[in-house]
Fold this sequence. Notes:
By secondary structure, the chain is an alpha+beta fold. The chain has helices at 2-22, 35-44, 47-67, 106-172, 178-212, 235-245, 247-269, 306-354, 359-371, 377-412, and strands at residues 32-33, 73-80, 91-100, 221-222, 275-283, 288-296. It has a domain at 41-69 and 108-252 and 327-419: Outer membrane efflux proteins (OEP).
Amino acid sequence: MRRLVSMWGLCWALTSVGARAEEPAAVVPPEVITLPQALELLSKDSPWMAAEKARVDVARTERIAAGILPNPSFNYGGQRLLHGANTGSSMSHQFTVEQPLLLFGQRGVRRELAERSVAAEKARVTASLAERELSVREAFASLLSSQEALRLLEETSVDLGRVEKVVKGRAAAGDSSRYDVERIEVEGRTLEVEVLNAKASVDDAAGRLAALLGRPGWSPRAAGTLGATGALPELGRLWEASVQHRPSLVAARQRQSVARGGLAVAKRERMPVPSLEAGAVVTRREDSTMGYLGLSLPMPLFDRNQGAIARASAEVDAETRTLDAEVAEARAELSRAHAVLAGRHRALATLERDVVERLPTLRRMAEDAYREGRGSILELLDAFRSLKDLRLQHLEQREAVQQAEAAVLFASGLETLTQAP
């Protein structure tokens, strides 16, 4: 018995190893990723997209139901003489087969409605994908900004360490007090805390991007530059693109098309469905067989599918009003996003022209003033903090521009601003 159990365990182990060997290897995402790669990973290899495609497959099953013919029915009836004179056969059996006939194009409108439903489901998935792409763009910009902020703070820490050596050298030579040394050491430790927080922010931003792409345990690093990726087209041109390409408007038009298809089906369903009957009547004792052929036709005197037609008409009206509301909301959202992006552009240009270009000069002046004894340690540290804050502000402004551009792309339904007609 033990030997049998051991052999069975060995076979199970070998089967398990073989099964694992046949499993396809999971796609390992890159450690460094660009925005186009992240968007491609979302649309082609994310668990969320696989679930959405499965919903489209569910909608496709409507095509099968739309093309199926109604089932025939088999009927049996028998007669037997129980009392009285036999005027014919004392026993007879009747067998009939009944087949409903769709003579008024019901299958055609049902198939058309099924095709419209599939197209509407695809449009819904595309609209949902656009929303998630916006989240990916925002998360990617946040990751880029966090990485850049970490790099900036590390550079500032290196610069402060260099100045700290100068201060300690002056203190050793008797040109500055011990307070200067203590003050700059405290400033250095404070900056180290900021660096640690910046590293945590990078990990947090990377985790958010990985979560959007459905990749647990992945800590990506973003490759790219912050800021606008293209010139801002005119609002009118963007609106022309939005009417044609914005996924939410396309989905609303597809829903309206489905509602109209439902109305066409409801109107066609009011037509009567005739049934053709054929069979045989078999009598006993006299041994006779008679053929039977019949046709039944419902009489639409009371129920002419008024309820379904009224409901379908109301759905068409509701979807039309919904489309009008979607168009108005989309235009307002695009106008807002366009105005925000234009304002972010102007603010970034002003900041770079009037502030960022002066930062190297200001840092050099602060260090020279301290070396020459014309400035105190407090003035030097204040200058360092101001320069660091201004560089971080410049970084935040570049991130704001990229976030605003992502909102414009979402509102216009474009992938890049250069696609505007």
